[in-house]
Each structure stands twice: as C-alpha cells, then as structure tokens.
Automatic annotation (TrEMBL):
The keyword Ribonucleoprotein does not apply. This is Spermidine/putrescine transport system ATP-binding protein. Residues 6-236 form the ABC transporter domain. PANTHER family: SPERMIDINE/PUTRESCINE IMPORT ATP-BINDING PROTEIN POTA, SPERMIDINE_PUTRESCINE IMPORT ATP-BINDING PROTEIN POTA. InterPro entries: AAA+_ATPase, ABC_SmlMolc_Importer, ABC_transporter-like_ATP-bd, ABC_transporter-like_CS, Mo/tungstate-bd_C_term_dom, P-loop_NTPase, Transp-assoc_OB_typ2. Coiled coil: none annotated.
Length: 353
C-alpha cells in the first residue's frame, strides 16, 4: 500500500470544558473517497474543519504527505473546501469564481482562464463560463463550487454537506456525478453527511461517528451488513437487535441462547458472554426455515403496510421483542397471522462490545 495522503494522530478537540473529539487516529489513502457519517453533534464537521485548517486541535497532529500541517493556515495547506452554501461571489462570473484562488496565488490571467475552462468542462459546465451564480440552478452552483476547489489541484478535497441544500432527485444525480468526478481526478475526498444513503453511495471508506469518536469504519457494505457497534447498527438504516448470550464455542462455531430460541453461527474470534444479533429487515423471510438458513423464532404479524417497492411488516414475538421485515410486495401477510422468521447466516451480524 502506498503512503497515506493524510495521517491523523491522536487528535482531540475541546470547546471549553466540552470535548468534541476524542483521540482520533486515521490514515486516508491516495484517491480514497472517505465519508464522515453521524448525527448532529457527533464531531464530523469539527474534524473536517481541523483538516481544512479552520480550527486548531487541542491535542494531536494532522500530517499531509508526511508534512505536519496541524497549525498551518487554510491558505497554506494543500486542501480546499466545498461548503454547503457554495460561498460563490455573486458579482463575479462563473469563470472568475472558479479562477479566484488561482488569481490569489499569482497565476497569470491566460493560464487561470484556461484552467477554469478545463475544470468547468470536467464538471459538465463549460457553457456557463460567463454567467453569474444567480443565473444557475442549485445543482449547477454546487458544481461551480466543486470546480473552484478542484482547479487548485489539492491533495485533499473537503466537502461539508455539499448536497444538503438540494432536493432528493438532484441530490441522487449529484451523488453519481461526484463519485465519477472524484474517480477521474484521483484526488482524495473527505465528505461530511448525516444521510446514510448518500454515505453508502459515495464512500470507499465509511466512518461512523458518535460523540466525537469513530465507532465503526470500513467499506459501506461491511458497515451496513455486519456493523461493529449497536450505534452503527441502528444509525445505518433500520435494524432488528436481538439480545443473546454465547453459551458454547466449538472451533469457530458459537451456540447462542436468545429469547427467540437457540441458534448456531460460524464466527471467528467470538467469545463466551453477552452478545447482540443484528439483522436488516430486507434480509428476513417468512415461513419454515429451509436448509442452510437460521430460524429466528416465530410470532404474530402486528403490522403489514404496502410501501411501494416493498411491504413493511412487524412480527411481534413477545419476550423476544419485535422483528421488522421488508417483504416482496407480492407476499401479502395478514394481521394476526402466526409466522416463522428466518435469515441466511451471512446476513446475521453479531456484536460483542
């Protein structure tokens, strides 16, 4: 593996007596799209601000290409930032907005105009060079802000909820465009969002944050299907959590006792004691468990609601709590019907925090 673009070492930050980041350490690889995901107050924007030089950490260090940039001001470090409100100059043309940073760096007029045109073409906006920001749509303004950041050829591009002001359809379109642009330019991106779908669509590396800590990290599929903590299991979409206890271990196979019955799972590194099973609603099915699938017990259908692309159902198991399912629309279930619930072993997460 090549040397990281960014190394964060034991980073902490406090506002007075309130600590908002706790001893974070992280490496960001060249060309990696990193997404910081978490609720308000989790510390993701504070971390982004420290990476951009807008905040000084209380402790720790930020290294970019091996150089200590911890106390370097924003204009001096090899980073640029795209803000949620775009921060475009309304009195300047689009071309002048994109070229502004180059002008501040003393780049000759002809060269900065050439680079502005090239970068606007990269984001699909070469036709708006002479327009003013107020003449553009929200999605176009977002792409102008992205071009203004990319034209500086940063080693690290920071995006602070850049799609938050867009409507749903445009947001999804811009997710695809952002990912495609990032892969073309090869710059490492760090993107802040509280939108789980956006995070999974964009991230190579997904960092789930809670109370100033990174509580889960990995590729989006792993974090979603096999979360490392109860928080990431519930924050990353809907999930059913089942309390369990590991009573026996034979090789990598664990026997677990739950309120829904006893089951066996093959999991390396497991230990005896308390555990939590997690299973996503779309990975559950009804009926007698066929060979190779794990029964999660039975219960009574308490809810069955048509949701367009799927049917949402809740099975009430009594002492085992409720199990949430997303079923095919052509699988009607009746309220009060007694059913059995099962899943594939690979779709059952197991937490031991």
């Amino acid at each position: 593996m090549s040397a990281p673009v960014v190394s964060i070492r034991n980073l902490s930050h406090a506002f007075g007596a309130l600590t908002v980041l706790h001893e974070l350490s992280l490496d960001i690889q060249p060309g990696e799209y990193v997404v910081l995901l978490g609720p308000s107050g989790s510390g993701k924007t504070t971390l982004l601000s420290i990476l951009g030089g807008f905040l000084q950490p209380t402790n720790g260090a930020v290294l970019i290409d091996g150089r200590d940039c911890t106390h370097m001001p924003p204009a001096k470090r090899p980073t640029t930032t795209v803000f949620q409100d775009y921060a475009l100059f309304p009195h300047m043309s689009v071309g002048a907005n994109v070229a502004f940073g180059l002008r501040m760096n003393g780049v000759a007029k002809a060269e900065r105009q050439r680079l502005a045109r090239e970068t606007l073409a990269l984001v699909g906006l070469k036709q708006v060079l002479d327009k003013r920001p107020h003449q553009l749509s929200g999605g176009q303004r977002q792409r102008v802000a992205l071009a203004r950041a990319l034209v500086m050829k940063p080693r690290l591009l920071l995006l602070d909820e850049p799609l938050g002001a867009l409507d749903l359809g445009l947001r999804r379109q811009m997710q695809e465009e952002l990912k495609a642009i990032q892969k073309r330019v090869g710059t490492a991106f760090v993107h802040v969002t509280h939108d789980q779908e956006e995070a999974m669509a964009l991230a190579d590396l997904l960092l789930v944050m809670q109370d100033g800590r990174i509580v889960d990290q990995g590729n989006p599929e792993r974090v979603y299907t096999q979360p490392s903590t109860r928080f990431s299991a519930t924050f990353m979409g809907e999930n059913t959590l089942i309390d369990a206890e590991v009573t026996e271990i034979s090789g990598t196979t664990a026997t677990l006792r739950t309120a829904l019955g006893t089951l066996a799972l093959d999991r390396p590194g497991i230990r005896k004691g308390k555990a939590t099973l997690t299973v996503r609603p779309e990975n559950l099915r009804l009926g007698t468990a066929p060979s190779g699938r794990v029964s999660l017990g039975s219960g009574e259908v308490a809810e069955s609601v048509f949701q367009g692309s799927y049917r949402k159902a809740v099975v009430r198991t009594g002492s085992g709590g409720d199990i949430l399912l997303k079923l095919p629309v052509d699988m009607p279930v009746r309220i009060g019907e007694r059913v059995e619930v099962h899943a594939e072993p690979r779709h059952i997460g197991l937490l031991q925090e």
